[in-house]
Amino acid sequence: MNAEVRPVIKPATASVGTLAAMLAVFSRDVRVAFRQRQDLLNPLLFFIMVVTLFPLGVSPEVAFLKQSGAGILWVAALLSVLLSLDHLFRHDFDDGTLEQLILQPQPLFLLILAKTAAHWVLTGLPLVLLAPVLGVMVHLDGNSIAILCLTLLIGTPVLSLVGAIGAALTLGLRSAGVLLSLLIIPLYIPVLIFGTGTVAAAAEGAPVAGYVALMGAFLMLAVTLAPFAAAAALRISLSNS
Amino acid sequence: MSEPLLQAVDLECERDARLLFQNLSFSILPGTVTRVEGPNGTGKTTLLRILAGLNDAWSGELLWCGQARHQNRESFLRNTLYIGHRPGIKPLLTPLENLRALMAPRQPVPDQVLLQALAGTGLAGYEHVPCRNLSAGQQRRVALARLLIADEPLWLLDEVFTAIDAAGVQAIEALLQQRAAEGGAVLVTTHHDLDLPGMKRITLGGEVNHER
Amino acid sequence: MWQFFHKLGSPKWFFGIATRFMPWLLAAGLLLLAAGIVWGLGFAPKDYLQGNSYRIIFIHVPTAFIAQSIYIMMASAAVVTLVWRMKLADVFVKAIAPVGLVLTFLSLFTGAVWGKPTWGTWWVWDARLTSMLILLFLYGGAIALDRAIADEKSAARAVAVLLLVGVVNIPIIQYSVEWWNTLHQPSTFKLTEKPSMPAEMWVPLLLSVLGLYLLFGWLACLRMKTEILIREQKTRWVKELVLAGRG
C-alpha cells in the first residue's frame, strides 16, 4: 500500500558506541545484583565456611595452617566463584535478556566481557577484599597475605572469564551446575597452581615477580580469548532453546 | 514496487529430527504487516527466531536489503527489532530502568521520552515500581513500550498480544497499522485473531507452504 | 578439491571406504602390536636400573601417546565442525571420545602398576601422571557435555567449543603442572624414556605405538560406522543396507 514510503535504513556504523553498550550491560548487572543483596553475600559466606572446615577437619595446628593456608584460601575462593557462575547467564536466559544481548549490533564478545567484568566485581573482588581477614585466621604472615591477595586479584578475573565459557556451554541444561564444575575445574588448575605456588615461593624468600608476571599473562590470554569462546557457546546454547 | 527488506529463499528447518518447514520463500516489504500463522508446533516461533538471527539450525538463504544477511549482520541487527516470547524484562528492575537498559545499546533516548512511552502503554504511575510487583500484562507492556520509541525499519514480534487486555490489543493493532503506513515492516506471530486491512500471511504447517 | 571435500562429508561414502579398509587396519595393527609386545616383553634387554619392571612401557607409552593425540585429533575435527559444519567430523569426535577416555585411563593404570615396583607406591603426584589425570577430566567433561545436550547438532558444536578451549589449555596445564612438580619435589626420579635407549628397546616400542595407532584407526572406523547407522537410520541407503544384510 505505501510502496513509495520507505523507512530510513540506518548506516551500519554504530550509532551507539561499543563502549557505551558495554557500560550499559555492566551497570545493569550491577544494579540487578544490588537489588538482591543476599545473592552477593552468599559466595562470601561460602568462602568463609569452606576455609573454616580445614582447621576443623584437618588440623588447627599453627604449623599446618601456616603451610597450607594459601592453598586453602585459593581452593575456597575457586569453589565459591564456581558456585556463583551458574547465575552468570541463567537469569538473563530465563527472562529473555540474553536474546536481546545477542541481537545487539555491537560485537557480542565485548558485551560478554562487560558481563564478566560485572561478575568479577560482584564476586571475585569481594573475595580478594575478604582474603586478608581469613589469611590472619590461618596464621599467614603479612608478606604472604599481601602476595596472596595479589595473586587472587590477578587470578579471580581468570576464574570468571574461563568460567563464563562453561556457564555459556551448560546454559539451559538439566543439572547444569555439576556439569559446569566438571567442565571448568580442569581449566582452573593452572591458575590455582600459580596462585598458591607464588605464595609458597614468597614464603621461601624466592623472588616472585616472574610468577606474578606469568599470572598476568594468563589473565591477558583469558581476556582476549575467553569472551570469544563464551560468545560462540552462547549462540549455540540459545540456538537450541 | 519497493525493494524487500528481508527475503527468505527456500528456508528449511529441521528440529529434533522433524521437518518443520521446507521450500519456504517470502519477502518482507516496507510498509507491510505480515502474520505468521499455523497450528501449535508448526514452527512459528522457530521461524521468527531464525529471521531474527537467534536460531542458526536452518538451511536456505536469507537476504537483507538484497544481500546475504550473514555478510551484513551488523546492519541487519541495527535495523531489526525483535521482541520474543520472553521479552527481556528484569523483574528486579523498574519499568524505567528496564526500558533504559534495553534502549541503551541501540539508540540514545532521553529519560523523558522513555517516561512518555511508558505512559503511552498505560504504565503511568508504575515507572518506579519493580517489575516483579507488576502483573504479567503490565510486564509485557514494558517491553511493548519499546514499540513507541523504536526506529528500526523491521519489527519481529513473537506472540505480541499475550497477556494484553482488549483495549491494549486495539492500541497495538492501531500501532502496527500506523507503523506500516509510515513505511515500516512488521512480522508477527499470534494466536489472537489479527486481521488488519492489507495484512499479508505466511502459513506454516500445511503440505505446501505458500505466500499470499 | 571441493568435490573431494563434499565426498569426505558424506557419511555414505565414508561408510563404504571404511568397510573396505577396516580388515587391513585390523590385520596390520594386530600384527605390529603383537610383534612389538612380544619383542618388548620377551626379548628386549633388561633395564640396568629397573630390571624387568620397565617392560610395562611397551604398553604404557603407546596408550599414553595415543590418548594424548586423540585429544588433538578431536580438537582438529572440532575446527571442521565449527567452520564447515561437516557431519562426519561430529561423528568422528563422538565416536573416538570414549576411546580416548579409556586409553587415558589405561595409561594411568599402567603408570600406577609401574609405580609400585619403581617408587614403592601406587600413585605418585608426578608431573606426567598428574597431567594425564587432568586429561582424563577433560575427556570426561567433553563426553558429559555431549550426553547432556539432547539436540545432536548443538551437542556437536558445544563439544567442539569445549575441545578448542581444552586444546588451548593443555600446554598451559602441562607447563604449570611441571612447574608445580619441581616446586614440590625438586628431584624426582624421571619416568621419561632415557634418550640413550638402545635400539632393541625403542624399535619394539615404536612397533607397538604404530600397531596401537592402526588398531585405534580400526576401532574409530567401527564406532563411526555404528554412529552413522544410528544417525542416518531414516535414509534410504541405510534401510537398503540393513534389508540386504538381513536377506
TrEMBL record, chain A:
<feature type="transmembrane region" description="Helical">
    <location>
        <begin position="208"/>
        <end position="234"/>
    </location>
</feature>
<keyword id="KW-1133">Transmembrane helix</keyword>
<feature type="transmembrane region" description="Helical">
    <location>
        <begin position="40"/>
        <end position="58"/>
    </location>
</feature>
<keyword id="KW-0997">Cell inner membrane</keyword>
<comment type="function">
    <text>Required for the export of heme to the periplasm for the biogenesis of c-type cytochromes.</text>
</comment>
<keyword id="KW-0812">Transmembrane</keyword>
<keyword id="KW-0201">Cytochrome c-type biogenesis</keyword>
<protein>
    <recommendedName>
        <fullName>Heme exporter protein B</fullName>
    </recommendedName>
</protein>
<feature type="transmembrane region" description="Helical">
    <location>
        <begin position="145"/>
        <end position="171"/>
    </location>
</feature>
<feature type="transmembrane region" description="Helical">
    <location>
        <begin position="70"/>
        <end position="89"/>
    </location>
</feature>
<dbReference type="GO" id="GO:0015232">
    <property type="term" value="F:heme transmembrane transporter activity"/>
</dbReference>
<dbReference type="InterPro" id="IPR026031">
    <property type="entry name" value="Cyt_c_CcmB_bac"/>
</dbReference>
<dbReference type="GO" id="GO:0005886">
    <property type="term" value="C:plasma membrane"/>
</dbReference>
<dbReference type="GO" id="GO:1903607">
    <property type="term" value="P:cytochrome c biosynthetic process"/>
</dbReference>
<feature type="transmembrane region" description="Helical">
    <location>
        <begin position="109"/>
        <end position="133"/>
    </location>
</feature>
Automatic annotation (TrEMBL), chain B:
<keyword id="KW-0547">Nucleotide-binding</keyword>
<dbReference type="GO" id="GO:0022857">
    <property type="term" value="F:transmembrane transporter activity"/>
</dbReference>
<dbReference type="GO" id="GO:0017004">
    <property type="term" value="P:cytochrome complex assembly"/>
</dbReference>
<dbReference type="GO" id="GO:0005524">
    <property type="term" value="F:ATP binding"/>
</dbReference>
<dbReference type="InterPro" id="IPR027417">
    <property type="entry name" value="P-loop_NTPase"/>
</dbReference>
<dbReference type="InterPro" id="IPR003593">
    <property type="entry name" value="AAA+_ATPase"/>
</dbReference>
<keyword id="KW-1278">Translocase</keyword>
<dbReference type="Pfam" id="PF00005">
    <property type="entry name" value="ABC_tran"/>
</dbReference>
<keyword id="KW-0201">Cytochrome c-type biogenesis</keyword>
<dbReference type="InterPro" id="IPR017871">
    <property type="entry name" value="ABC_transporter-like_CS"/>
</dbReference>
<dbReference type="GO" id="GO:0016887">
    <property type="term" value="F:ATP hydrolysis activity"/>
</dbReference>
<dbReference type="InterPro" id="IPR005895">
    <property type="entry name" value="ABC_transptr_haem_export_CcmA"/>
</dbReference>
<keyword id="KW-0067">ATP-binding</keyword>
<keyword id="KW-0472">Membrane</keyword>
<keyword id="KW-0813">Transport</keyword>
UniProtKB/TrEMBL annotation, chain C:
<dbReference type="InterPro" id="IPR002541">
    <property type="entry name" value="Cyt_c_assembly"/>
</dbReference>
<keyword id="KW-0813">Transport</keyword>
<dbReference type="GO" id="GO:0020037">
    <property type="term" value="F:heme binding"/>
</dbReference>
<dbReference type="GO" id="GO:0005886">
    <property type="term" value="C:plasma membrane"/>
</dbReference>
<protein>
    <recommendedName>
        <fullName>Heme exporter protein C</fullName>
    </recommendedName>
</protein>
<comment type="similarity">
    <text>Belongs to the CcmC/CycZ/HelC family.</text>
</comment>
<keyword id="KW-0812">Transmembrane</keyword>
<feature type="transmembrane region" description="Helical">
    <location>
        <begin position="201"/>
        <end position="222"/>
    </location>
</feature>
<keyword id="KW-0472">Membrane</keyword>
<feature type="transmembrane region" description="Helical">
    <location>
        <begin position="56"/>
        <end position="84"/>
    </location>
</feature>
<keyword id="KW-1133">Transmembrane helix</keyword>
<dbReference type="GO" id="GO:0017004">
    <property type="term" value="P:cytochrome complex assembly"/>
</dbReference>
<dbReference type="GO" id="GO:0015232">
    <property type="term" value="F:heme transmembrane transporter activity"/>
</dbReference>
<feature type="domain" description="Cytochrome c assembly protein">
    <location>
        <begin position="13"/>
        <end position="184"/>
    </location>
</feature>
<keyword id="KW-0997">Cell inner membrane</keyword>
